[in-house]
Structure formats: C-alpha cells, structure tokens
Write a structure and sequence with these properties.
Helices cover 33% and strands 15% of the residues. The chain has 218 residues and is an alpha/beta fold. The protein has one domain: Aldehyde Dehydrogenase, Chain A, domain 2, CATH 3.40.309. Strand 7 (143-146), helix 6 (151-158) and strand 8 form a beta-alpha-beta unit.
C-alpha cells in the first residue's frame, strides 16, 4: 500500500497535476480504502504549495488564476453533492493546495471531468469487476496504473483497462522515449515514441526505378 500511496501522490501532484498523464481518479477497493486515504492524506500534508522561490514550497503555481477558479468550482461541486474534502482545497490566486476528495460519485463533475490540477478523487468499489467498470467509466484513456501483490492478476486486469498505457505497481506519470505513448477514446489520435513515431507521422509509400528496357506483354 505504501508504494501505491507514493505513486498516487507523485502522479496526482507533481507539476501541480498539470501533466496529460497525471493521476486524477483513484479507484480503491472498499476493504483498503480507509487505510489508503489516511496514508495518502498524511503524505499530502508534506506537500505545501507556494511561491517556487520559497524553499518550503514543494509545489508551485497553476498556469494562471483562471485555472484555479475553474478547479475550485469542480471541488465545490463535489463537496456540495456529498463528497468529503479530506485535505486541501485552499485557493489563493493561482496557488491551490494539493487536494484529496473521498466519496466521489458519478453525479459529480470531478467523476468525469479532468481537473488538470493538484486534485485527486477517491472512488470506492468492491471486487475486481466493479473496480474495472469504474476505471473504464470515463471518456478518457491515456495512462492508468494498477497496484497489486499478485502480478498475474494485475496483468490480466491490465489487458481489460481501456487506456493506451497501463503501468503495474508504478505511477501513471511515466514516459520513455523509445516506447509508444498515446491514448484511446478521447485521449489521442495515435502514438508517438520509438517506432510508433515513424509509423504515425509518416506515410508508407512505394517508389520504383526502372533500370533498362522493360518487356510488357502487350
């Protein structure tokens, strides 16, 4: 669980969550959800957002004030509809403290909308099939992660997760130049990286050069 907590914190809050592959939704089995939320909340307490010139600031600013206003509206919508604000949510200009919400349901905008900010939401389910349905209940499908001690079980689930990338026991924020990077559903139009870049950004053609006389049948 500790590895999952560290990966969730890095994936959700690195660069203030302003990465295409940032962690947005945490689909957690109810049997371990309380313990996970407690550990992640304790981790978030160490991630203070502030002026990057301040040595005590771990996180910095959003891209602009408008981004903060938009994200705060998403947080408020979830809380108004019954979600629990576990930690964070304080906005000052373009500085938003890292935020964790629990009990998020499909009635809330954050269930479906990408915050593109330092916000992670916990969505609880029970059993592999239910958790898989929740994970796939999204129009997006760029990067996912599965954490399990049973790698065979995790690999089987990874085959069914609707995402262009799926990391097992690692964070969603991970890229390697030689590997194909791209999403499915509303998260992209192909892949780049390594051979995938050549295939996606070029057009296969056939060019011939006739050397010498050619005999045609007519």
């Amino acid at each position: 669980m500790d590895a999952a907590v560290e990966a969730a914190a890095f994936g959700a809050y690195f660069n203030q969550g302003q990465i295409c592959m940032s962690t947005e939704r945490l689909i957690i089995d109810r049997k371990v959800a309380d313990a996970f939320v407690a550990k992640l909340s304790a981790k978030i307490e160490t991630l203070r957002a502030g002026n990057p010139d301040d040595s005590e600031s771990v996180l910095g600013s959003l891209v602009d004030v408008g981004a903060g206003t938009r994200i705060k509206a998403l947080i408020d919508d979830a809380v108004d509809l019954g979600a629990t604000l576990v930690i964070g949510g304080q906005l000052q200009g373009s500085i938003l403290q890292p935020t964790l919400l629990d009990g998020v349901t499909d009635t809330m905008r954050l269930y479906r909308e990408e915050s593109f900010g330092p916000v992670a939401v916990v969505i609880r389910g029970e059993g592999d099939e239910a958790l898989l349905r929740l994970a796939n209940d999204s129009e997006f499908g760029l990067s996912a992660a599965i954490f399990s001690r049973d790698t065979s079980r995790a690999l089987a689930l990874a085959q069914r997760v609707e995402s262009g990338i799926c990391h097992i026991n690692g964070p969603t924020v991970h890229d390697e130049a030689q590997m194909p990077f791209g999403g499915v559903k509303s998260s992209g139009y192909g892949s780049f990286g390594g051979k995938a870049s050549v295939e996606h950004f070029t057009q296969l053609r056939w060019v011939t050069l006739q050397n010498g006389p050619r005999h045609n049948p007519i």
